[in-house]
């Protein structure tokens, strides 16, 4: 089981390059960055965590720039969007971004994708909240065509473009793993339909039981004709609870990702060192 970390990088947090080096030096597998382009002052959607939206949500750096900064000073650390809001991004531009960062990092990019919850933010980008899931699927299919075809085109309800050329293609073939984030069962179905993995959150899995939900996901994959082994599971926001983490190992979770606060080095490094001890206790 691999272990990674996720952070909302801001101008006041630990620098992406410094955190990337610190994670790699301590033997962690990956660094993940969420995405929010902005936070509208209106609030049609309640914050899933309850209460007001934390400041890092609207202070956060662009994930691709933050991740490329970390990749430039590391050699083996995987870098991932956790998650990229594809409903807020042009697919042609995003395909170019993904190919570029995957080439620049020599195949270390993990493309975590999701459809978002903040209706105000999503609709500011011209996306209808009610049809965002179909839009996301079309944009993802369009990007997959761009990455794998010499003269790709796409003709969907929301995404349309004629034959074109776009290079570079991604370093990883056919393209970086597209790991779909979100809750069970809806995001799980999307992961099975067009993804290369699934990202649930630990706190949401706990409600119905981690093992129960993971078992249902794998059964759904099999019923859909997908090999569950082709859909590795990455659990976000895991606590440093050895019993729970050992259980994740036992049921074949591919990766767990712990959350870091948007703080400076003096607050972050002790957390990393605590997780080094956890990793050692897990035999990793």
From TrEMBL:
GO molecular function, one term: oxidoreductase activity, acting on paired donors, with incorporation or reduction of molecular oxygen
Signal peptide, first to last residue: none
InterPro entries membership: F420-G6PD/mer (IPR050564), Lucif-like_OxRdtase_Rv2161c (IPR019921), Luciferase-like_dom (IPR011251), Luciferase-like_sf (IPR036661)
Top-level taxon of the source organism: Bacteria
SUPFAM superfamilies, per database record: Bacterial luciferase-like
Coiled-coil ranges per UniProt: none
Domain Luciferase-like: 18-237
PANTHER family documented for this protein: CONSERVED HYPOTHETICAL ALANINE AND PROLINE-RICH PROTEIN, PTHR43244
Protein known as: Luciferase-like domain-containing protein
Organism: Rhodopila globiformis (Rhodopseudomonas globiformis)
């Amino acid at each position: 089981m691999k272990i990674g970390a996720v952070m909302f990088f801001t101008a006041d947090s630990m620098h992406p390059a410094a955190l990337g080096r610190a994670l790699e030096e301590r033997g962690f597998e990956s660094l993940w960055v969420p995405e929010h382009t902005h936070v509208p002052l209106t609030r049609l959607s309640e914050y899933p965590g309850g209460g007001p939206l934390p400041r890092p949500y609207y202070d956060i750096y662009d994930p691709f720039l933050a991740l490329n900064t970390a990749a430039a000073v590391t050699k083996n650390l995987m870098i991932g969007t956790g998650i990229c809001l594809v409903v807020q991004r042009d697919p042609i531009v995003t395909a170019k971004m993904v190919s570029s960062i995957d080439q620049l990092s020599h195949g270390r990019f993990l493309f975590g994708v999701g459809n978002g919850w903040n209706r105000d933010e999503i609709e500011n980008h011209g996306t209808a909240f009610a049809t965002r899931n179909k839009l996301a699927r079309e944009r993802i299919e369009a990007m997959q065509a761009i990455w794998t075809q010499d003269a790709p085109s796409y003709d969907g309800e929301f995404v349309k473009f004629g034959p074109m050329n776009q290079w570079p293609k991604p370093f990883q073939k056919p393209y970086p793993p597209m790991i779909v984030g979100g809750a069970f069962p809806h995001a799980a179905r999307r992961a099975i339909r067009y993804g290369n993995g699934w990202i649930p959150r630990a706190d949401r899995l706990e409600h119905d039981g981690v093992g129960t939900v993971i078992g249902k996901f794998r059964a759904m994959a099999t019923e859909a004709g997908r090999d569950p082994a082709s859909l590795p599971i990455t659990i976000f926001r895991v606590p440093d609870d050895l019993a729970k983490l050992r259980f994740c190992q036992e049921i074949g979770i591919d990766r767990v990702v712990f959350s870091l606060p948007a703080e400076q080095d003096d607050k972050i490094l002790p957390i990393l060192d605590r997780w080094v001890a956890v990793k050692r206790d897990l035999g990793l």
